[in-house]
Amino acid sequence: MVNEVVAVLVSFSFIPILTRKRIKFNHILLIVAAILALSSGISYKAFGQAVLNVFSNTSSITTILTVLMVGILGGLMKHYKILDVVVDTLMELINDSKKILMIIPAIMGLLVIPGGALLSAPFVNNIGEDIKLSPARRAAINLVFRHIAMFILPYSTSLLIVTAEMPNLNIFKLIGMNLLFLLFLVNLGYYFFIRDIKVEDTPKDKDVWKSLLNILLYTSPIYVPIVIYAITGWPFYITLIASVFMVYLLGDKKDFAKRTLKSINWNIVLTVVIIFIIKEIILNMEGLLGIFNNMLNVNNSMLFIMLVFFISSFFFGYITGNQTAALAIILPMLSQLNAGGNLLYLYVFITFIASFFGYFFSPLHLCQVFTLEYMRVNTAELYREYKFYLPSLFVAALISFLIFGF
User: Which long-range contacts (CB under 8 A, 24 or more apart) does 377-380 make?
Assistant: First the structure.
């Protein structure tokens, strides 16, 4: 039992060490998976079966194929500057720099790619510079509003992991729960980072209906697969084909087939595969799962269980700087509980939000690393911007948990 706990802690402690060496995150996870397999005492046969399970499990395959398609969509939309058109149109339409500062990162967040905050950083940096915002404030704005989509986009990597681990869960119900926390996140972000900005915006000539039509048209690759899914129930990796077709219609069509192949993000696909392998290894660690179950059996009150899930999810989110990795570790343990109905949704919601906390405020968070590098801000300066935002967001999370708990 103790050996397995030590194996997990030692294995994942390599993530912050190896991250400093500028090694790709999927390679780091591969090393972690190897160390975890060796140190946990799992047999070669069991390890081989764990790998085999990833490629024989329908939920895992569906998630991997969806991540593959999302990578293609993100690459194509970036190459053909689809969202750039949306951003340019919004800047023509909205006569308010404060709103633009929130909207641009949120729009760019629809491209579900690792370190995607770097796409919105130039826009936020330029606008922030014009209205005399400090670089640390610009960085905070970019990071806070960049992550809105991951709570509500059904094919965001984090929600896909939840779907794969909990196939019987209605993902749209979880998204509905996420919306409450998201409401807090957006309003607190506005209050602490946007509200006190003083700007004098000049009126712009604009054709409102034409601008709205452009926005509706150029964001269609994002919402079309969700609409098709809602109507047909087909897997997202199939409905996303419609998104790719929409990009074909909206782009210049030059070298489209070649560009589609180049847009496959093998790094993120490999990351998801390794995360699933780590999950299968953990499911083979009976001692670790036993400790977790015994801990919950000592005190099976809802508040105690909520606390256990929050702390463990936050911890793994923080040390990995990756929410999907944290979810892959915690959700298998959660699945061992006999929780059902609304209680199961509550525990998954807590796990999702807590892992987001750990990931978002981790110094290993790729979006944070790239944003700080681009805006030439150090971590201490950014965290000073968060001094009131972080505790307020924590209180908001607690309120959300209690509302759904009762």
Answer: 377/135, 377/136, 377/139
Instruction: Supply the pLDDT for residue 211.
Output: 87
Write down the pTM of the prediction: 0.86
Residue range 132-165, pLDDT digits in tens: 899 999 999 999 999 999 999 998 989 999 999 8
**CA proximity to 309, closest of 339, 273, 353, 243:** 353
The amino acid that residue 214 corresponds to is N
pLDDT score of 115 more than 60: no
- CA–CA distances in Å: residue 148 to residues 39, 202, 243, 318, 379: 38, 28, 20, 19, 22
d(CA 208, CA 393): 35
pLDDT the model gives residue 14: 85
What is the helix, strand, coil percentage profile of the chain, to 5? Answer: 80, 0, 20
Task: Report d(CA 219, CA 85) in Å as an integer.
Answer: 10
Contacting residues for 297 by C-beta, under 8 A, at least 6 apart: none
Quick check: 225 and 242 in contact, CB under 8 A? yes
For tokens 């609304």, name the residue. 342
In degrees, rounded to 5, the angle at the alpha carbon of residue 244 between the alpha carbons of residues 242 and 248 is 110
**Amino acid type, 63:** T
H-only helix segments in 361-388: 366-375, 379-385
Sequence length of the chain is 406
Which 3 state secondary structure label does DSSP give 191?
helix
Q: Which two tokens stand for residue 228?
A: 């098709």
List, for residues 55-81, the tens digit of each pLDDT value.
Answer: 998 888 998 999 899 889 888 988 898
pLDDT at 250: 93
Dump the DSSP string for 195-254: TT----PPP----HHHHHHHHHHHTHHHHHHHHHHHHH---HHHHHHHHHHHHHHHS--T
Which residues make Cβ contacts (< 8 Å) with residue 175, sequence separation at least 6?
151, 152, 154, 159
Residues whose CB falls within 8 Å of the CB of residue 256, separated by 6 or more in sequence, listed in order: 248
